[in-house]
Amino acid sequence: MLNEMIFAGFGGQGVLSMGKLLAYAAMKEGKEISWMPSYGPEMRGGTANCMVNVSENPISSPIVTKYDVVVALNLPSLNKFEPSVKENGILIWESSTIKDPPERKDIKIYPIPAVEKANTELKNVKVMNMLILGALVKINNIVKKESLLVALEETLPERHHKLIPLNEKAIELGMSLV
Amino acid sequence: MLNEMIFAGFGGQGVLSMGKLLAYAAMKEGKEISWMPSYGPEMRGGTANCMVNVSENPISSPIVTKYDVVVALNLPSLNKFEPSVKENGILIWESSTIKDPPERKDIKIYPIPAVEKANTELKNVKVMNMLILGALVKINNIVKKESLLVALEETLPERHHKLIPLNEKAIELGMSLV
Amino acid sequence: MPAKGYVDIIVDACKGCGLCVTNCPTQCLDLKKDDTNSYGYHYSYMADEDKCIACMNCAVMCPDSVITVYKKTG
Amino acid sequence: MPAKGYVDIIVDACKGCGLCVTNCPTQCLDLKKDDTNSYGYHYSYMADEDKCIACMNCAVMCPDSVITVYKKTG
Amino acid sequence: MGEIRFMKGNEALAEAAIRAGMQGYFGYPITPQSEVIEYLAAEKPNHNYTLLQAESEVASINMVYGGAAAGSRVMTTTSSPGYSLMQEGVSYIACAELPCVIANIARGGPGLGTIQPGQGDYFQAVKGGGHGDYRLIVLAPNSVQEMVDFTILGFDLADKYRTPVLVLSDGAIGQMMEKVVLPEPKQYNPDKPWATTGKTHDRERNYITSLYIQSEHMEKKNIELQKKFDLIEKNEIRYEEYKTEDAEVIIVAYGVTSRSSKKVVDLAREGGIKMGLLRPITLWPFPKERISELAASDRVKSFFSVEMSAGQMVEDVKLAVNGKKPTYFYGRTGGIIPTPEEIIDFIKTKV
Amino acid sequence: MGEIRFMKGNEALAEAAIRAGMQGYFGYPITPQSEVIEYLAAEKPNHNYTLLQAESEVASINMVYGGAAAGSRVMTTTSSPGYSLMQEGVSYIACAELPCVIANIARGGPGLGTIQPGQGDYFQAVKGGGHGDYRLIVLAPNSVQEMVDFTILGFDLADKYRTPVLVLSDGAIGQMMEKVVLPEPKQYNPDKPWATTGKTHDRERNYITSLYIQSEHMEKKNIELQKKFDLIEKNEIRYEEYKTEDAEVIIVAYGVTSRSSKKVVDLAREGGIKMGLLRPITLWPFPKERISELAASDRVKSFFSVEMSAGQMVEDVKLAVNGKKPTYFYGRTGGIIPTPEEIIDFIKTKV
Amino acid sequence: MKEGYEVIYKKPKTLTDNRMHYCPGCIHGIVHKIFMELIEEMDLQERTVGVCPVGCSVFAYDYMNVDMQEAAHGRAGAVATAVKRMLPDRIVFSYQGDGDLAAIGTAETIHACNRGENFLFIFINNGIYGMTGGQMAPTTLNLQKTTTSPYGRETKDSGAAIKMTEIVKDLEGVAYAARVSCNTPANVRKTKRILKRALEIQEQDLGTQFVEVVSNCPSGWRCTPVESMEWIKDKSIPYYPLGVFKEPGK
Amino acid sequence: MKEGYEVIYKKPKTLTDNRMHYCPGCIHGIVHKIFMELIEEMDLQERTVGVCPVGCSVFAYDYMNVDMQEAAHGRAGAVATAVKRMLPDRIVFSYQGDGDLAAIGTAETIHACNRGENFLFIFINNGIYGMTGGQMAPTTLNLQKTTTSPYGRETKDSGAAIKMTEIVKDLEGVAYAARVSCNTPANVRKTKRILKRALEIQEQDLGTQFVEVVSNCPSGWRCTPVESMEWIKDKSIPYYPLGVFKEPGK
Ligand SMILES: Cc1ncc(C[n+]2csc(CCOP(=O)(O)OP(=O)(O)O)c2C)c(N)n1
Ligand SMILES: Cc1ncc(C[n+]2csc(CCOP(=O)(O)OP(=O)(O)O)c2C)c(N)n1
Ligand code: SF4
Ligand code: SF4
Ligand code: SF4
Ligand code: SF4
Ligand code: SF4
Ligand code: SF4
Ligand SMILES: [Mg+2]
Ligand SMILES: [Mg+2]
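YS: structure for the whole thing
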């Protein structure tokens, strides 16, 4: 079954890397994957996003316009992508920084106060993207948590491996929030 | 009737200008004309030539490979173009400087000692091309002598008009040689 | 006594680069650590109202021309 | 007495530029005014056999490398 | 009736540009085209156009961009390798919709090739040698007279559609001298509200750009451009027919080869073959309707595309004929103009 | 089976070049292609290729000329405007018969355009954007894996035919990450007796040129080149077919659009339309025989060319179909990849 | 506005209201601002035509409220040449980055200067290709890390950082050549004075005006805007000395 | 050969037997000859790869009996860069005219020099476009008449003649820069010595070698070869001073 997802937020919120990690994990599970970043000057300062497709069959198009899952980490992204969630699709949004919540009734909406939780419980806001990722896999269990850990292992440069436990905590915390 | 001619010799022997003059004269007589020079580095030092077509009807091709008239002022040109004179066509060659004469029997051949005559009788070798031109128009009266004079008038810059009488003499001398 | 001058900063136009802050001779500006504008930037604001001497350094340095400087009249 | 040197000039390779002529310190070269080679050039030739001092100036200047210079041995 | 002169094609083109009110010329020497800038340099004191010998063709075409965007009537001319260097600039000009005239006095390629005449730049001219979807109006003169006529026409079409116009000629027509009739010079005063001449207080600033970073905007721009190209195809197709009324064999040829082809038609008819010539004058837009019309008639048996190339225009002929009739190609390369005799010999082998 | 990695298209292309034994890379940054040179710069210490960031694309392509003529396996990569700047150089390389690989990670044009993916450089790629009669072998990958496979294939074909090979990809494939399987690196030792490496006493001097000043020589050169191109057309046509066996409607699409088109085929068949996909892998030589074969069969009713352009490859499809069946075009521009849904909606309006 | 206060500094009307796309702290924004202040103060808006490059300032026409042309990468010098020649009584400037002016545009730059084209080059030298994501430029300092010199630029391999102002100052056609920076308020004010002088020289038709701004690129340099200003002081300016290198007739 | 005489000067074997297409008295022929004499004397024929330009010397590969490449107009600097980088142990030179090297090829020239590419530029500056029939070059002297400056070059319009050697000598990458001429036997001999020095420096891998030859073009200048040598003495050399402008490490 094909899963078309997009991760959007400010540059620096780590949307590209969370998408990459998820895709890598899925690849490890033997699935077909594609990861497509937004690119170009508009990224600067402004918003960044990446589309991640996961499927049992070859991915027909890396770029899509309707999504099974939208992850929005800032208001511009929420406004931009809320309309493009497929019916009964999933919308995850960062609820501690985004003031006005999404409105659609025909989709599953998950507010995650990732920034606040990362700050308060993990004392590190940087991992809030991992926290969101945890929530996501809990919701649609697209990949196993273990696969994400393997992905971290294999994609993080050696010198950052010390950060893996923190990231794992973040993922678990995220899972616990839904 | 279409007349396809080529004038060939060393750069500096004035082959381009004699062709131009003839074409201009023909134009003055209301004929259709084209003048096509050889161009490019090979001209340098080496040989130059121009193709002149004169006709009652529009000229279909400015560049041809067989000629009604070939005027050869040096040996390389004679060797190169003798074979491309049409049957019964005309070949005029400078006989005072070119040592070995043409051999074809199926064409009309006119040796003109233009260099020598220009030196001895006109004390100016530069006009030997006019002398050849005189011979040519006498042979195939493609244009009237008067037209050539008009052409000289209209094409020579004012400051060179004093040379017109000399040129006229050269043309007449040329006519007298055939 | 009231300050020599003060500045207006358009919150949403500020990119939080901090150039105004570091170039203010009297340290009256600072970046809002605990808040971001709608573009996600910690914007600059007047942290100390009384110190401004209307030297315009902040505005001169601001790449986004978001600072207007006011000076006490007379 | 025989000259210090002499030069060989390949007639047909000469372009009659005259650089050898003007750069010969002893004026032993000249261009054939009354004859042209097969390319139509008034080629250079040794006009005065006795003056050549084998200085090589002519050959050094010749753009077409058509001059060979010989020097009296011993 | 205008002034009669005996001129070289390149000089005639230059004189025509002057008479068309050209205000700026930017170019770089290259054989067989250099007479254009040489003529303009000699004539300069008698006129008030701007003339600049650029440091390269890349600079030339970008100067044309700047001059055209500043609202002036501008031109550059070059030959094959130089035109290749201009491809980025041409794509920019087409996208920015800047009116200008470019002449390619083509020679034989590829590479440095030969300086003798060629028609091997046809694809580059009509399919867009540069990147992206764009077209130029391409005019193909076959005489010195048409070097004059099409240069003037080119300037007018360029302004009419805000589009670059390419005069695709070749070394033969550029170098040859023929009789020409020159029209009266016209004073040219452009009305180009879009031009960047300084933002007066009574209007918003103008800016000329080919940048549309957002896909939606870029697509919108492309749709506008395509609309314009459709309009040009509707209005500006030009061609000449010679004895096609009763022809069973149609030669399609442009530029200098169309002249020998005309002779072929006469020779063929002497030999009893009912032949006709269709000569595209606008290579783009290409006279495809007319050709498919001819292809549809039972009378017409076959088509022959005659070119100084390895076979380029023949593709457009085939697209127009669309399988209705056999379409053959005869070409010479390297600067050799096919003679009427060899063309007819080839045709005889097919009909 | 080789090493598995999760890579960006551009990085995969770069890694493939290294594994193909590339000896020299010369390039200039441009989005969406810059990752190629960035990857090569990062990997340099682990290998012994020459890497030079040139001052421009014009310099890059001429460095490729020099490096290839010196007998080395060389490559440059760029994106649309940069490739336009290379056209003179490409024409030289084709005429001088120098083997090299050039990649155009195309974006949407014309002009500066957008940096989003595009297929508007098709004409430029297959009809020769430069002057004169020449062709490049043009390979069109549609996945990150094929960025690897076709880069390696490209180097081999370039050497086999002494001809430049163009990998025509786009920003989507260049920027996306997918799973790739990397082959073992090969050591490359060229045997190029024609290369200019210094005239040893046992041979005449070698020289590389594209200059043939005499028409006869230029024509001879062109005839040789055309012979080579014919041979390539005979040997190297590559394409992929998907469910064409029983198809009544044929989509022709290459590169990234061939992926959505594949999905279209499946959707269509769910909807009862017997559809198939023909995907040209070599854009030149183009699979025209296969297409005209399909066009000839009564089963096939119509053809659809789907592109990210205003309609370019569709001309080659039409030339192949040659009027036997209706041929339609559907395209988007500006970097927008047509969705399977919109494609199928369009097709429904025609069948 | 508060009682008893007056405005002494505000955004010039010659800047549009468009939000600049530049990264936080990018000097492009500062130069845009002071140059447009000059256009306003010298009342040149109606007579000015600008040419922007391909580079981060490719969108300059969105911000500078004067007539503008967007030139192909590196060709602004050629484009501006034509604009000025066709409109000799206008004020013409080109605004170019270092990749644009000193790499791909080298020939157009040198020859416009050599011909003495009477327009102003505003040359924003941040020693990197900002727009494309931080690749090495000909102006990148020795050992500086960029995405295409990940281990630091090697002079032996890439040559020394090129000093365009020093090159063009010796060309007869150049009337005025100066190098400035905008890393401090004082330098920003100085830059404005120098640009003003350049425009005066253009009005006098004395030859090409060339003003190089030693600039920053926090994103490409991978540092904060404040750090980038430090880097300019400690690294850039010592290699690219500031000052007026040529005055008309000198 | 006459009895009692020996050959002391003859055409080098490193020149082919092809007749040169150059016009009578063209210095191209002189430079070809002395450079090939050096290749012979220094025994470099087997290790030399040359790059010729588009210009009258486009056919240099017909005359120089070494491996050669014919580069696109102006790009010999880029081509030679690649050749030397791929074949570092070969002797590499580019042979270019002034239109080629100083007009269309400006960027390639400047950047090859700036990178310090270790090859020899032989720059034949005859102040005109010879091959195309005598158009103005960036190096054409003020007031000099050419087919595109029929009334004499105007500095105000076309700029002053550009001095490439003076420009490149200041680039760190350039190890050796000299200007010579071939208008007299003494200068021809001197040119040969300088070219020899340049080749020695290339062997030592010290940086780019740039040798400008003040040359002639009787055809383009519309004068006799002998007059052209006078013109060089009276007009060219006073503007283009001869000498060694840069030695390695200086
Ligand atoms: C012909 C061409 N080549 C390359 C590019 C890609 N490109 C865009 S901007 C740029 C360089 C930007 O650097 P710079 O000129 O220094 O400006 P900055 O962004 O640093 O201000 C490049 C290489 C292009 N757009 N066109
Ligand atoms: C791209 C391109 N532009 C222009 C030309 C035409 N062209 C050939 S040689 C030349 C200049 C020759 O002058 P120079 O380089 O000084 O060499 P010279 O003949 O004087 O020795 C030009 C403009 C060309 N062949 N290619
Ligand atoms: S005006 Fe001067 S003192 Fe006032 S805030 Fe700005 S910098 Fe500080
Ligand atoms: S300088 Fe301007 S943009 Fe930067 S922080 Fe201050 S106000 Fe905000
Ligand atoms: S060697 Fe010297 S003396 Fe002898 S001919 Fe030559 S130049 Fe004259
Ligand atoms: S220098 Fe050489 S070519 Fe010139 S005249 Fe003397 S021998 Fe002949
Ligand atoms: S990338 Fe660099 S130069 Fe471009 S806007 Fe950002 S900081 Fe400025
Ligand atoms: S044209 Fe000039 S440079 Fe060219 S060969 Fe003749 S004299 Fe020499
Ligand atoms: Mg920069
Ligand atoms: Mg020259």
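YS: worth flagging: Chain F is about 40% helix and 20% strand.
IM: good catch. Also Residues 103 and 167 of chain F are 4 Å apart (CA to CA).
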